[in-house]
Amino acid sequence: MSKDEQNDIMKKLFKHDLDEAILKVFFYLDPDSLKQSRCVSWEWNNFIMYRMWNSKTWRKKLKRRLESRWRNRRQVPITELAETGNTVMSMECDEQTVYCGLSNGG
């Protein structure tokens, strides 16, 4: 299904005020996709902000779902490094690694 077809389906749902169906569509998106969905249109942004986040019921459901995703995600292996005696001055990270800047410049 193309993005245009998906947009048409969502437009029809909005046009016919099928809020419960729209809520379920947005609910099953991962957090990044839900955030990106707010950028699609003014209508989508307002719906997500006011019908999902301002609804106690849906906000509670979203919170439980996010907590569940966080608790059940794949564990990241931790590798301990030898004691260097240096102080960690800065830290940066990407999706896989944490980088530490040490007081000795290492």
Query: Main sheet?
Result: 2 strands, antiparallel
Q: Rough shape?
A: elongated
Which structural category do the helix and sheet elements fall into? mainly alpha
Measured distance between first and last alpha carbons? 51 Å
**Oligomeric composition of the shown chains:** single chain
Low-confidence stretches: none
Structure description:
This protein has 106 residues and is mainly α. Helices cover 55% and strands 10% of the residues. It is built from five helices and two strands, in the order αααααββ. Strands 1-2 form a two-stranded antiparallel sheet. Strand 1 (88-93) and strand 2 form a beta hairpin. The longest helix is centred in the middle third of the chain and has 17 residues, at 56-72. The protein is elongated. The protein starts with a helix and ends with a strand.
What's the helix and strand layout?
Elements: H1 3-15, H2 19-27, H3 31-37, H4 42-53, H5 56-72, E1 88-93, E2 98-102
Antiparallel strand pairs: 1-2
